[in-house]
Amino acid sequence: MPSAHAASDLHDAGLRIQYAAFDEDGAVKLSGAEKSVQGNAWQAASAEGWVPPAGLTQDLDGLWKKAEVRHADACSTCHGAPKASAHTANEWAGQLPKRGGRTGHSSASANELMFKWLQAHAKPM
After folding, report:
1. pTM for this prediction
2. Domain ranges of the chain
3. CB within 8 A of 112, min separation 6: which ones?
């Protein structure tokens, strides 16, 4: 089960890849199980919720293609777009928000899918 980085964000222990975020109090249930990864405490968690069918797709390849095109467009405006494998998932978690501060390419909104694609196709840790 993914561990909770914060009470409302689900991550795998040791990875800075956000799998879900919840804004409703009590949506995430924390268990007593904890483990330490890279000096950080992670707590096992679970969540339950509902998503409208229109918000779901089985076409992961189509989503990744959109993200790859966005990466090529957004990141080649000022410089050559780095390969996703140029960084680990955790390194991408630090790179995009920093650069987004200067260029507007943050991990939010239109770039959220691109950010997930970069992390999913990142260099192994």
Report:
1. 0.71
2. 3-47, 59-120
3. none
